[in-house]
C-alpha cells in the first residue's frame, strides 16, 4: 500500500487563505479519488471534499480540493479563514479495498 | 435522517476481547457499506475494515492480524465489530462509518471509547 503524507501543522490568520498538501508515496495520485475530512476537538470527522474536488451539500465554497500530478499530491484550500476552521484535517484515499488516511494536519487560526 | 448510533464506552483488561455495536437508521441498511475507523488518543485516523451489509462480505486491514471481525444483523440494521487479544495500544475511540460511494465516508457514528487497562 502507498502512504499519504501531510504536514503536521499549519497556522494562518483569519481572512487569509491556507492550502494543505497530501502527497501520495507510490503510484499516481489520480488513480484513486481523494477525500478530505475536518475533525474538531471531541467530535467525529466530517467530510468536506470527496472525489478529489466535490463538496458535500452544506459545505461552504470556501473549501476546495484539487489534484497536482506534478507533485503527486492532493490539496485542500480554505479561503477567508474563520476561527471555526481551526481543526484537524485528514486526507484519505484507497488501494483496492484498503482505506488509507494521511496523518492529519492541525490548522491553527491565529 | 441518517444516524449511526454506537454502543457505550468499554474498559477492558489486556488480553480480553471487546465487541461494539453500530445501529443504523434513516436509510436502506443493505445499500451502503460500513467501515470501522479508530483513533488513539492524540493520534490520527486508522482504518480497520469494511463490511457489505448485503451479503456480509468483509475485508480487514492486515494490521490487525486476524484479531478483528465485523458482522451484521440485518433484522436490526446493526453492525458489530469484535477485537480480540487487546493490548494497551488498542485504547482508542472507535467509529463506525457509512460509505456513500467510492470511499466517501458521509456519515460517522458518535464514537466509542475503548480503554485497555490492567
Defining traits:
heterodimer, A: 110 residues, mainly beta, 6-stranded mixed sheet, 4-stranded antiparallel sheet, 10 strands, 0% helix, globular, B: 118 residues, 7-stranded mixed sheet
How does this structure look, described?
The complex is a heterodimer of chains A (110) and B (118). Chain A is 0% helix and 47% strand. Chain A is built from no helices and ten strands. Chain A has strands spanning 4-5, 9-12, 18-24, 35-39, 46-49, 63-68, 73-78, 87-95, 98-101, 105-109. In chain A, strands 2, 4, 5, 8, 9 and 10 form a six-stranded mixed β-sheet that branches. Chain B is 0% helix and 51% strand. The A-B interface holds A 32-33, 35, 37, 39, 44-47, 50-51, 56, 90, 92-94, 97-104 and B 35, 37, 44-47, 50, 59, 61, 95, 100, 102-106, 108-111.
Short summary:
Chain A is mainly β.
Structural class of chain B: mainly beta
Number of DSSP helices of chain B? 0
Helix/strand order of chain A, N-terminal first: EEEEEEEEEE
Q: What is the global morphology of chain A?
A: globular
Low-confidence stretches of chain A: none
Beta-strand content of chain A: over 45%
The main pleated sheet of chain A reads as: 6 strands, mixed
Helix content of chain B: under 10%
Order of helices and strands of chain B: EEEEEEEEEEE
**Most extensive interface between two protein chains, with residue counts:** A-B, 24 and 20 residues
Helical fraction of chain A: under 10%
Strand content of chain B: over 45%
Contiguous helical run count of chain A: 0
Produce the secondary structure layout.
The complex is a heterodimer of chains A (110) and B (118).
Chain A: E1 4-5, E2 9-12, E3 18-24, E4 35-39, E5 46-49, E6 63-68, E7 73-78, E8 87-95, E9 98-101, E10 105-109
Chain B: E1 3-6, E2 10-12, E3 18-25, E4 34-39, E5 45-51, E6 58-60, E7 68-73, E8 78-83, E9 92-99, E10 105-108, E11 112-116
Parallel strand pairs in B: 2-11
Antiparallel strand pairs in B: 1-3, 3-8, 4-5, 4-9, 5-6, 7-8, 9-10, 9-11
Amino acid at each position: 500500500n502507498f502512504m499519504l503524507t501531510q504536514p503536521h501543522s499549519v497556522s494562518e490568520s483569519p481572512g487569509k487563505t491556507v492550502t494543505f498538501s497530501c502527497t501520495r508515496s507510490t503510484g499516481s495520485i489520480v488513480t484513486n479519488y481523494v477525500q478530505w475530512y475536518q475533525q474538531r476537538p471531541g467530535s467525529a470527522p466530517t467530510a468536506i471534499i470527496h472525489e478529489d474536488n466535490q463538496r458535500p451539500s452544506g459545505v461552504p465554497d470556501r473549501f476546495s480540493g484539487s489534484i497536482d500530478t506534478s507533485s503527486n499530491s492532493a490539496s485542500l484550500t480554505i479561503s477567508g479563514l474563520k476561527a471555526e476552521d481551526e481543526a484537524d484535517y485528514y486526507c484519505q484515499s484507497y488501494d483496492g479495498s484498503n482505506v488509507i488516511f494521511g496523518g492529519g494536519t492541525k490548522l491553527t487560526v491565529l | 435522517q441518517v444516524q449511526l448510533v454506537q454502543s457505550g464506552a468499554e474498559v477492558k483488561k489486556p488480553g480480553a476481547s471487546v465487541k461494539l455495536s453500530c445501529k443504523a437508521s434513516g436509510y436502506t441498511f443493505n445499500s451502503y457499506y460500513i467501515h470501522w475507523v479508530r483513533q488513539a488518543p492524540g493520534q490520527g485516523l486508522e482504518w480497520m475494515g469494511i463490511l457489505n451489509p448485503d451479503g456480509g462480505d468483509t475485508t480487514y486491514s492486515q494490521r490487525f492480524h486476524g484479531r478483528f471481525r465485523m458482522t451484521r444483523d440485518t433484522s436490526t440494521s446493526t453492525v458489530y465489530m469484535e477485537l480480540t487479544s487487546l493490548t494497551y495500544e488498542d485504547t482508542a475511540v472507535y467509529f463506525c462509518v457509512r460509505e456513500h460511494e467510492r470511499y466517501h465516508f458521509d456519515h460517522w457514528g458518535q464514537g466509542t471509547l475503548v480503554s485497555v487497562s490492567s
